[in-house]
Here is the input.
Amino acid sequence: MVPGEYLPIYVLLTTLTAEGRKTIKNKPERINEVNKELETFGAKILHQYAVLGPYDFVNIVEAPDNETILRLSIELGSRGTVSMVSMPAMSTEDLISHLPMSQTFQVTRKA
Here is the structure.
């Protein structure tokens, strides 16, 4: 990475297993401990939300590359306390800037 460049962003959707729920119930600070541990892989939690529905947490993470996310997903998943879905993400501003101008402002007219 060139100094001043942004690291890629990933969305990690995590689901606690029964064992993971017990851990969080008995030791809620474990969430922060795992967040710190992600830094040893070269990743950093930017935002983290506890949610209702099919996932327990939505994590917005920056990491240098897909391999970093793969390594941390395998490590955390191998413990049997969490399962994870990871997705690379980009801001809508970045998306728009990568689209050709003709597509960004093209208006379709019907005769």
